[in-house]
Design a protein that fits this description.
4 domains, about 40% helix, elongated, 21 helices, five-stranded antiparallel β-sheet, 29 strands, alpha+beta
């Protein structure tokens, strides 16, 4: 073989007569293409690399004869240089360590590590991502050395951190590091490494950095040796480490098929990097765009790769990544955006690009609760609505002659219950509690029923409602509707004069709701005491009798203030917040409350009488001595103190359990079957009995299993609703005029003078320091010092 190099102009002319050479097509492809990924690796040291060094001077191009003369001269000079180096090596051969091969041949040991001394030029690993050049200064203990690195920093390094000792350099002045690096920059040409691979592959010959320097630079001086080492250490395509010892390594050229596969992977990687960079630019553009011109959320979901990136940020924002790779991806995105790798950074970025609204509900995302119904469930619900038959049609009693009041909050989407009343000839009051009949459409174990069980309950948030049943089925089929004939399960009760139950019945019915009233409008009608609304007054009278009777049985009053919030256009940065404070002692609310308790007592009694497995609920009183709280003002203050000593509710699925707090012998939740799944199970059981048999859908054991999973889901939903309500109350307070004063009731003292307060105007509990002399039940004035809903922070200060 003959090989001719003209290194200064980066030309290689080779004629091969033996050995297998790489394909010509591969060579042609390589020489035309710069490896951008290699350049990026080298640029970590601040290097920039020219591909080919060309003649940039002026003047005419040299003639052909001049080129040939120059080439011959260059070859002659190189031949002489090689001869001198060979003679030099022969003169020092005696001092080089040797080793025996497996054949007994004596060869030079190329992995001998140079002893450390002051003034050596070396490369060391600063951290997993960086290597630096440095000069040894002095020993630091038995093994470590103090060095000055290329950044002018003095530090102690361990021998195992050293990756290369530049040969032939002694007493190097550390102030020359910058110049050395600049000169190295001109020699780091990745195509030279590729040409060397082609030559070494033909010979199947391993190589050291110094030998590689001879091949590509024509000499193995310190600068060239370091450049060769750097090219080899950063290379991931052409060479692999054959053997390594300390800071010395021997490299082997990879096979042609390996290189082609690595190049293919590199092209794929480069395409992915370009795609990623385009995504980062898209993020930056969206982040800087005005709010009204930010890309719509749908645009981030159109491309699979973009959606994958966005999903990783979402998972990072709620600490719920699906895999380590997803977490790493989000971290790389945040780093590329110049942001810290924190959940808050990911959240703020998603808000800044317009993907999340400012007031996104993170708890809803974290809990991963179902919101929209799947197409399959919606389709199944529509079939039920259009094709299902009423199995109880022949057994329904017609109660359409009754005046029926449905009383609920003004934004209620579905209505579960309504009330009627009349006075019998003997003066007693007869009441009907009409409950919506979803079991008219849904049967246990059906597709729609299984989905309702999985959800457990409808979710009512300030920003949205996520119903247990598909909306169309719930609204058009199950819900009670004003002026329309509706299916119901009606519980009728005749009260004695003391408020106890004299007679009752439970029947399938047909009703026609007359009024749909809010609590406010119902309270107004009661206050007006209109003669034509005598039925409403009878309901109020019955509620009063029931309340008296329950308290005689030991019921405990826990009425308080309750906050309700409805947010209009929650996607807006500053949505409208409608806040309502409801006093549970309000006449209309007390009326509905008493009727619901009455219905629950009747169903428990009916179930006990006929041995029906039901979700019976009870609550021991814990021997509560209500008189011990008589010194506290009635209402929220006294209720808060009583609730703290109450025991948790308990359930039984075979027979009623006394509900001491309500003061009744048994209780079953029955009045919200469209919103609560356990209410629906009670409907399934009761309706099965009304159809004439004891073939109940669920045994007591099955009900217990269902209740366990449903109640667990209900606790999650309750936590979500409480956190959502708290967020929006704090946001409401944040927007109020600075320095605004609020009346607060002291509910209890948490520690020293730090008290739990109830802000009367907003029905919200928070803590604050109160002055000496204030007692539980006293009123104080406070103002909001700080309010940060995202951090769940509210800071109150007493106004003295």
């Amino acid at each position: 073989m003959m090989s001719v190099r003209a290194i200064n102009d980066c030309f290689i002319i080779r004629t091969a007569t033996t050995g297998a050479a790489p394909p010509v097509s591969l060579f042609r492809h390589r020489i035309q293409r710069l490896r951008s990924s290699h350049l990026r690796e080298f640029s970590k040291l601040g290097f920039g690399f020219p591909l080919l060094r060309q003649n940039t001077g002026g003047g005419d191009a040299p003639s052909c004869s001049a080129c040939i003369h120059s080439l011959v001269e260059s070859v002659s000079q190189e031949h002489e240089s090689v001869s001198r180096r060979k003679r030099s090596r022969l003169s020092v051969r005696a001092s080089v360590k040797v080793k025996l091969t497996s054949y007994g041949e004596v060869v030079e040991d190329k992995l001998v590590n140079q002893e450390l001394e002051a003034g050596l030029l070396l490369e060391f690993k600063k951290d997993p991502e960086r290597v630096l050049l440095a000069v040894t200064h002095r020993p630091d203990g038995k093994k470590n050395w103090m060095v000055f690195d290329q950044n002018g920093v003095s530090s102690s390094i361990k021998p195992q951190q050293i990756t290369y000792i530049v040969p032939g350099v002694y007493n190097f002045d550390h102030t020359g590091l910058t110049d050395f690096l600049h000169r190295a920059q001109d020699n780091l040409d990745t195509q030279l490494l590729e040409f060397a691979w082609m030559e070494l592959l033909e010979k199947n010959k391993p190589v050291t950095p110094e030998e590689l320097a001879e091949i590509i630079y024509g000499r193995s001086d310190p600068l060239e040796s370091y450049c060769a080492h750097f090219l080899l250490s950063k290379d991931e395509i052409y060479f692999s480490v054959l053997e390594s010892k300390g800071s010395r390594s021997i490299y082997s050229p990879r096979r042609t098929e390996q290189v082609e596969e690595l190049l293919r992977r590199q092209r794929v990687k480069e395409a992915e990097e370009r795609e990623f960079e385009e995504f980062i630019q898209l993020l930056k553009s969206a982040k800087n765009a005005p709010s009204h011109t930010k890309p719509p959320k749908s645009s981030w979901l159109a491309n699979d790769k973009v959606r994958e990136n966005i999903d990783s940020l979402k998972a990072y924002a709620i600490d719920a990544w699906a895999s380590i790779d997803q977490r790493k991806l989000a971290g790389v995105i945040l780093k590329s955006m110049g942001l810290q790798k924190t959940a808050v950074s990911a959240l703020n970025l998603l808000i800044d690009i317009g993907y999340f609204p400012v007031h996104v509900n993170l708890d809803l995302l974290k809990l991963n609760l179902p919101t929209d119904h799947s197409d399959a469930i919606v389709e199944a619900a529509e079939i039920l609505l259009s094709e299902s038959s009423d199995l109880d049609a022949a057994r329904r009693i017609d109660l359409t002659h009754l005046k029926v009041y449905a009383i609920d909050v003004d934004e209620a989407d579905e209505l579960d219950d309504a009330l009627s009343a009349t006075r019998l000839q003997d003066g007693r009051i007869k009441i009907w509690i009409h409950v919506a009949d979803p079991a008219r459409y849904v049967t246990p174990g059906s597709k729609v029923d299984r989905e309702a069980r999985r959800r457990g309950t409808s979710v009512f948030l300030p920003t949205a409602t996520y119903p247990m049943f598909p909306e169309k089925l719930a609204m058009e089929g199950m819900s009670l509707r004003q002026g329309e004939t509706c299916n119901a399960v009606s519980v009728s009760v005749v009260l004695r004069s003391d408020g106890s139950i004299a007679e009752y019945s439970v029947e399938n019915s047909i009703i026609r709701p007359t009024y749909m009233l809010t609590y406010e409008s119902a309270a107004e009608l009661l206050h007006m005491n209109l003669q034509e609304e005598v039925e409403l007054r009878l309901l109020s009278e019955a509620a009063f009798l029931r309340s008296q009777w329950r308290h005689e049985q030991g019921a405990v009053d826990t009425t308080t203030l309750e906050t309700r919030i409805k947010v209009v256009n929650p996607e807006d940065p500053e949505p409208l917040i409608n806040l309502y404070v409801e006093n549970q002692a309000d006449p209309a609310m007390r009326l509905v409350f008493e009727m619901m308790i009455l219905c629950g007592e009747v169903i428990a009694t009916f179930g006990s009488q006929h041995n029906i497995p039901l979700p019976y609920r009870g609550q021991p009183q814990s021997n509560i001595d209500v008189s011990a709280f008589a010194h506290l003002p009635e209402g929220p203050v006294r209720s808060a103190s009583i609730v703290k000593v109450m025991r948790a509710a308990e359930m039984n699925f075979r027979c009623p359990v006394r509900h001491g707090v309500l003061g009744i012998p048994g209780y079953v939740q029955f009045t919200s079957p469209i919103r609560r799944y356990m209410d629906l199970t009670a409907h399934y059981q009761i309706k099965a009995f009304l159809r004439g048999g004891d073939n109940f859908p669920f045994s007591a054991g099955e009900l217990e299993g269902i209740a366990a999973s449903v109640n667990m889901q209900n606790r999650v939903v309750r936590k979500l609703c409480n956190s959502g309500l708290r967020y929006w109350v704090i946001e409401f307070l944040r927007r109020q005029q600075k320095g605004k004063k609020y009346t607060a009731l002291i509910l209890r003292f948490v520690k020293d003078r730090i008290a739990s307060l109830l802000l009367v105007e907003v029905g919200f509990q928070a803590t604050a320091w109160v002055s000496e002399g204030k007692q539980v039940g006293d009123e104080v004035e406070v103002r909001v010092e700080e309010a940060h809903p995202r951090d769940d922070l509210i800071l109150l200060k007493e106004v003295l």
